[in-house]
Amino acid sequence: MKYISIxxxxxxxxxxxxxxxxxxxxxxxxxxxxxxxxxxxxxxxxKICKSNEHLLVMKSTKNNFSKIVKEIKKIHPYExxxxxxxxxxxxxxxxxxxxxYAK
Length: 103
Fold this sequence. Notes:
Layout (H helix, E strand, L loop, with lengths): L2 E8 L2 H13 L5 E14 L2 E15 L3 H11 L7 E6 L3 H10 L2
Antiparallel strand pairs: 1-3, 1-4, 2-3
Helix pairs in contact: 1-2
C-alpha cells in the first residue's frame, strides 16, 4: 500500500475546519494538520497576487486520492484549488495507523 500527504490551501479557518471535518468523517484521511496564517504569492489572471491563507496537510492512502480531490472540489471556494499529493515513507506503526483510519 502507498501512503500520501496532501497539501491544500484555503482562504480562512472556517473553510479549513469544514474540509477537515468532512474528510475525517468520511474516513478518507487519518489526520489533518491545519497550519494557520501562511502568505501565498502566485500568478492568477496574468498578475502576481498575494493572499493570507491556511495550509492543510492531510495523511491518507494513495487509493483515496481521487476521492479526496472530488470531495474537496465540491466544497472548496477556489476556482482552482491547490490539491498537491506527495508519496510518503514513515515508520510502520504510523503507516498502520493511517491505514486503519483512512479507509
